[in-house]
Specification:
By secondary structure, this protein is mainly beta. Helix content is 7%, strand content 32%.
Amino acid sequence: MQITSQCPVCAAATERIETGGEEVWRCTVPDCSRRTYGTGDPDDDDLLPGYTETDGTGAVVVYRGTGEIDVEATAELAAQDDTGDEDDQSDGGTPEPQGLAPAAWEPQVYDVRVKDLVYVLTGAWVWIYGDPEGWRFFTSAAYDPDRGDTTVTITYSDGEVVREEPWPQARLVHAGPGTIPTASRPGPARLVKR
């Protein structure tokens, strides 16, 4: 097993870190920060242990072991940490107004792999790199390499079914079909009504 010092995504130099008692290599490019075992086999990197970090707004973000944001796990963690109290009601039995959500809960644009869309259970907005149509709302995605799938089957809200390669990058925003993202890079989603 040969250890490499290059990032498998951007080929930049990596630095040695230790996580969970294991030696791992992390890309030194801030926008990449890909983690790898350095074996040269991307399947090995799928076994890297996940981790969490707190961003500048105080929100906890869950990462897969490779350094990619685990969108579903982050959303689940955010839902668990929601401090809304169902028993907090006025004498009339109606809930007190909760006000505006803090900035950390705003919809975000995430960079994801196309195969990660299968973990989005409620549908979301996706922009697959190279797709001239831009942002499209998808209702489901299916990919199972154990069954012999080599592509991801994506069903869009207009009923169109498209097969995409699993590895190309895409952008993802968790928002309902009544709005559409206007953002083109990771960060706040900036949604407009359709």
